[in-house]
Design brief:
By secondary structure, this protein is of the alpha+beta class. The chain has 6 helices and 10 strands.
Length: about 220
């Protein structure tokens, strides 16, 4: 099938604009020698993303944390960063939604509402080591969150499963959708309402002493 036919097929599978997710941050705190920030995500799934998840398409939530130091007369300095991701997929055999996070047990729930509830709980993420902070310096934390409802890798995995590639380990050739140039794939996906969703939040300024103020 031609690339244009692949575009038409992808557009037929997808539709509707996506609502943007929202991110908010709690005040930074110290725990175990690290600076932590609690990330709260509201409305993680637009209706179109919920539909795609219920049909078995996986989605990935990516979180990127940066610790910055103010510098008078200079550009602010990036002190450290941290990345985390959460994979959401529907298991057709058990009829459950699985939430997978590195170094954490996999959670299984029966409904998308339960998935949204779990993802809406605060994520505690480390931003850097307390020992690296200077006593009189001012800092702030930036958190970027991206929901990737569909990627080329996800489609490759799905096409491989459908063709028997995953089960038999045989190469099945180039798939219809993944044969598209990545830029064209992304353009159609975005137009159809399954493009990446982004949001970004910044904490108020804090210093080393304020991390221990509540104790």
């Amino acid at each position: 099938m031609s690339a244009l036919a692949g575009v038409a097929l992808l557009a037929a599978l997808l539709a509707r604009p996506a609502a943007a997710l929202e991110v908010s941050l709690a005040e930074p705190r110290e725990n175990g020698g690290h600076v932590w920030v609690d990330v709260l995500i509201s409305d993680p799934f637009a209706p179109r993303v919920e539909e795609s998840l219920s049909r078995g398409m996986p989605a990935t939530l990516q979180l990127h944390v940066e610790l910055w130091r103010h510098r008078t007369g200079w550009f602010d300095r990036l002190e450290s960063s941290f990345d985390a991701s959460v994979k959401i997929r529907y298991d057709v055999w058990t009829r459950t939604y699985r939430i997978e996070r590195k170094a954490a047990p996999t959670l299984a729930v029966s409904t998308l509402d339960s998935v949204s509830t779990l993802l809406s709980r605060p994520f505690g993420l480390p931003a850097g080591r307390v020992g690296l902070l200077e006593p009189r310096a001012r800092y702030y934390i930036v958190v970027s969150v991206t929901l990737k409802p569909l990627s080329v890798e996800d489609v490759e995995e799905g096409e491989g499963w459908l063709s028997g590639e995953v089960a038999t380990k045989r190469r099945s050739g180039v798939g219809i959708l993944t044969a598209l140039p990545r830029s064209l794939f992304d353009a159609v996906r975005n137009f159809a309402g399954l493009g990446d969703q982004h949001d970004r939040a910044i904490t108020e300024d804090f210093d080393l002493e304020s991390l221990f103020a509540s104790r």
